[in-house]
Amino acid sequence: MHVRKVQPQPPRPLPPRWLERLQQMSPEEQERFLRNNRRFLSLPPEQQARIRQRLEQWNRLTPQQRQELRRRAQIWQSLTPEERRQVREQMLPRWRALPPERRRLLLSKLRQLQQVPLAQREQLLKDPAFLAGLSADEQQLLDQLAHLRAGHTP
């Protein structure tokens, strides 16, 4: 007789639709949902705590911050698996390696780019005056981030 060892299954995250539903609920409704949901209750306590903590953070956001996070999530969902891999493996490490003041500068430039139509954005990304003070690597990262935030990659 052969006995097969059963491997423990990693905990499954909450379905994306749950998160969307929870984000639409009041904190009281969220708590009621979580207290009565079998799938949530079957998660390890650490994972339950992380989910509750993320909901608390969400509930503290302003409507504008929530809208921006939803927009970013939509952009992320629109990326191909290869584009996501590129963001995780190339762009994000470069971003994290920047000193805080350089990140702030790039964010300022990104905000400026967001305020203009796409055609003008492309012109600004080639304008030496707009790019003044940025290294070649920062210029490339700005270009990639600008296209990513616009919802398409170069």
Strand content: under 5%
How many domains would you count in the coordinates? 2
**Which of globular, elongated, flat, extended, rod-shaped describes the shape?**
elongated
Query: Rg, please?
Result: 21 Å
| Element string (H = helix, E = strand) | HHHHHHHHHH
Q: Which stretches of 5+ consecutive residues score pLDDT under 50? A: none
Strand tally is 0
Structural class: mainly alpha
* Arithmetic mean of pLDDT: 85
Helix % is: over 70%
Q: What's the tally of helices?
A: 10
Largest sheet: none
Give the terminus-to-terminus CA distance.
Answer: 58 Å
Brief overview:
With 154 residues, the protein is mainly α.
Describe the structure.
This protein is mostly helical and 154 residues long. The chain has 2 domains: 16-60, no CATH class; 81-149. It is 73% helix and 0% strand. The chain is built from 10 helices and no strands. The longest helix is centred in the middle third of the chain and has 17 residues, at 81-97. It is elongated, with a radius of gyration of 21 Å.
